Amino acid sequence: MNPDVDAYLGKAKKWQKEFEKLRTIVLDCQLGEELKWGVPCYTFQKRNIVLIHGFKEYCALLFFKGALLKDPKGILITQTENTQATRQIRFTNAQEIVEMEAILKSYIYEAIEVEKSGLKVAFKKTTEFTTPEEFQNKLDEIPALKAAFHALTPGRQRAYILYFSAPKQSKTRESRVEKCTQKILNGKGLDDQ
């Protein structure tokens, strides 16, 4: 048990019972325990296997390579439409976790075996993501922007495409493109300072 995780769980206002139960189950599977990204993360030979996190409506066990798990019970959930590798099992109360303990352990053991085997998730290439019309128009309109965008790393390109695609309204997408145009021209990624 990691004292940083003890402190995290001690401060948890919501999902404390659920987090404690999930922690016990995961630790029973002989994984290492760390605090990463501000949440309990469990590792096998320094490789991330699963983490525990909470949201307003649910708490979850997140599998880093969940897309590679068989999921015979059909309980793995893709968090968002753009999520490629991770999958969650969600809970709204401690009793659900207690009832699923054997199933959860089997999924964790499978995740460990996936890691041991060296399997990797095949990620979509940046070019496979749809560029929103508002951004494509701007790229066509400003050749320097197009050149600057294509000079960015694939990960930075993907971050912009996902950020520009997220809003439902065209006006909001246009606003985001306008706000980020100079940043792209400066060769900066979405999260770069």
Describe the secondary structure blueprint for this structure.
Layout: H1 3-11, H2 16-28, E1 32-36, E2 39-44, E3 47-54, E4 59-63, E5 87-91, H3 94-99, H4 101-117, H5 133-141, H6 143-151, H7 154-165, H8 170-185
Antiparallel strand pairs: 1-2, 2-3, 3-4, 4-5
Helix pairs in contact: 5-6
CATH class of the largest domain reads Alpha Beta
- Helix content bin: 40-55%
Biggest sheet overview? 5 strands, antiparallel
Structural class: alpha+beta
- The CATH architecture of the largest domain comes to Alpha-Beta Complex
Q: Mean pLDDT, nearest integer?
A: 93
Number of strands: 5
Please work out how many helical segments DSSP would assign: 8
What is the string of SSEs from the N terminus onward?
HHEEEEEHHHHHH
Outline type: elongated
Domain unit count: 2
Instruction: Enumerate the spans where pLDDT stays under 50 for 5 or more consecutive residues.
Output: none
Strands side by side in the biggest sheet: 1-2-3-4-5
- Percentage beta strand: 15-25%
Radius of gyration in whole Å, from Cα? 20 Å
Distance between the termini: 36 Å
CATH topology label of the largest domain: Aspartate Aminotransferase, domain 1
